[in-house]
Specification:
Chain lengths: ~325, ~325
């Protein structure tokens, strides 16, 4: 495999201009233009991913592209923001190929179209280290209405979307190199293909006091949000939603439960919802097609008390998966 | 030197939260908020820099930070945009130290304050390759008024700000490892410390039909802008403004002239200005304290004809310095 003989302009014209949105000006200017809706704030989030840390260098390139965009859209979803577009900075390893780039760009274009979040611009450098992608994504919320991480208040209920731990268990399977046992392919898929919960954004905007996306592990992210909000919480681990595949994994290997609740890459939403809004939030989530489960309560003070499935107190040594 | 024993949250709290702007929410949320001025478009630009490509790994960290921000502000300046803020993605090499990071963050904070462009958010990953920085910068222009690269029209005059070639000659001195001869320290400084021409943005917005920043070499960037605008140009190389230090370099080494006009890292502004606006543009630039020089004319057709200092036609084999 030899590096494709393309300069940066050729690379942009061939692979990225075809997938750019109108604000990207054909990727032929120095900058892109976003016209934010009147009366809206712009929400900006940035997430960088590196081969060997956030994905495997030999993952399918379209999957890498999807993941890089999805982890950023997950942040926008948690903030209640409508996606407007994104920029991409790509640091290429030695020996990248036009084939790889074609698949990557196609995957990125499909993910962007599927989520209504067009590519607006970017930059590409040959870094010679591991493939590193950095996406900055933009969204809009009505002015002053971004759902903050700091908004949880005493008495609020804590909800989590979807199921927790699938991706972390999928990564465990992947690292063990055994492939997926019967009924557990779902876990590998959740690791490779995060699905940002954009469908939940309106319900969060209307009913949640606070939210963040669960990307570095449920236990650690929950502690982080309670700390940021200056409150305490009691969490019922028995109420943490698990997929059928995760349950099956844990039935065979009890250590899987801790992996599930502390491991990363869920890209689900953790939200605090005032008591008076709880039913409306549940109804709006159901109407949006996103399952949510109540997992605990916010209280005064600090720290998170986890109650195990047997009712006893549980502590976690590790708390959060850190990509860093 | 050992890597500093900090996790990502610790690193953010210690080094970056102190230099963040209010929209960065103390870097404790998943996202930042920008409230763009009513009736304005948001201009977005992204530039990535990699050690060994855009700077030397052993450059002073504050200088690296300044350069990473400045090259993005240079794009905003060329688009006539008022800076609003920026995000940073940092891929760290093995063996980074808290000392290095402290100097880097301090330099970044000073550069951000000097240009009124606060840090809003970011992400840091340990990549283990060369240090790679990607900055996405945001600016505002009155709706529909971004100065495009594509706007040059037949009859327009071509202007360039400041002086051309200093940084490329500085890089040449640096690579030769000889230090700066008498009177040429200016060249090394221009390579290390780009000064974005933000002071010119109002003049560009009012009077220019098109503009781009000169970052990859005057000759190549001029060709790029004419191609993007679908026009031709005639350029008088004798009119290209050179600093006293560059003239001195070229007096000793005639090959320096081609390096000066084709080499990168000028971070000056190339603008096309309609004839009727030319005097007003010159006056506005002078009032802003930015020297501008008329270097040529836009015409119908395609291609750029360069007239040498002796009046004859000149062609350039290389045309543009490419970081890529």
């Amino acid at each position: 495999m030899t590096a494709a003989p393309l300069d940066e302009d050729g690379l942009i014209a061939r692979f990225f201009a075809p997938i750019a949105g109108p604000g990207g000006l054909g990727l032929r200017d120095d900058a892109a233009v976003i016209a934010p809706p009147a009366g809206h704030d712009l929400v900006v989030t940035v997430d960088a991913l590196v081969a060997g840390g956030h994905f495997f260098a030999d993952d399918p390139p379209a999957g890498i592209a999807l993941k890089a965009l999805a982890v950023n859209l997950s942040d926008l979803a948690a903030k209640g923001a409508d996606p407007l577009g994104f920029t991409l900075a790509l640091a290429l390893p030695a020996g990248w190929t036009a084939d790889w780039m074609g698949c990557f760009a196609r995957g990125l274009g499909e993910a962007a179209a599927a989520h209504g979040c067009p590519l607006l611009g970017g930059d590409t450098v040959r870094a010679g280290g591991p493939l590193t992608l950095s996406i900055t994504a933009f969204g809009a919320v009505p002015a002053g209405r971004m759902v903050p991480r700091t908004g949880a208040g005493p008495g609020d209920r804590l909800y989590v979307s979807g199921t927790i731990g699938d991706a972390a268990l999928g990564l465990k399977l992947r690292l063990a190199g055994r492939g997926a046992p019967e009924g557990q392919a779902h876990l590998l898929d959740r690791y490779l293909h995060p699905r940002p919960r954009l469908a939940l954004r309106a319900a969060l905007r209307r009913h949640a006091s606070g939210a963040m996306d669960v990307s570095d592990g449920f236990v650690g992210d929950l502690r982080k949000m309670m700390r940021a909000s200056g409150v305490a919480a009691t969490v019922d681990l028995g109420a943490v939603p698990l997929s059928e595949a995760a349950r099956r994994f844990i039935r065979d290997d009890a250590s899987g439960f801790e992996v599930a609740v502390t491991g990363g890459d869920d890209y689900e939403i953790l939200a605090s919802v005032p008591d008076a809004e709880a039913r409306a939030f549940e109804a709006a989530s159901a109407a949006a097609g996103v399952p949510v489960a109540e997992v605990g309560r916010v209280g005064e003070g600090e720290g998170v008390a986890f109650r195990g499935r047997d009712g006893g107190a549980v502590d976690f040594a590790r708390g959060a998966f850190s990509h860093f």
